[in-house]
Design goal:
single chain; alpha+beta; Alpha-Beta Plaits; 4-stranded antiparallel beta sheet; 3 helices; 4 strands; globular
Length: 86
């Protein structure tokens, strides 16, 4: 499965967040409202499934992750590491 990051840019995202909670441990909310998501499909398919594509009241960018590096809390690295080795 591929990894994605969702970056809300404006508006409210209640519908998207409800749908993401259904992903269980395949979705992790970051402190500023972004989401890490594991999903089998394309950025467009994920956007459609979460209701982002047709949401006229808010905006979110969906990006596929091909690599990662940086500094963050242990639970973020654990999520990325566990998903990377699954």
């Amino acid at each position: 499965m591929a990894k994605f990051i969702l970056v809300p840019t404006n508006g409210t995202h209640a519908e998207m967040e409800v749908r993401l909670k259904e992903f269980g441990n395949k979705a992790l909310r970051l402190p500023k409202g972004e989401w890490l998501v594991e999903y089998e499909g394309t950025t467009k398919q994920l956007s459609d499934e979460l209701g982002i594509s047709n949401d006229k009241d808010s905006s979110t960018i969906v990006l596929a992750i091909s690599g990662f590096w940086g500094r963050s809390s242990a639970n973020h690295w654990e999520w990325l590491g566990l998903k990377n080795n699954a």
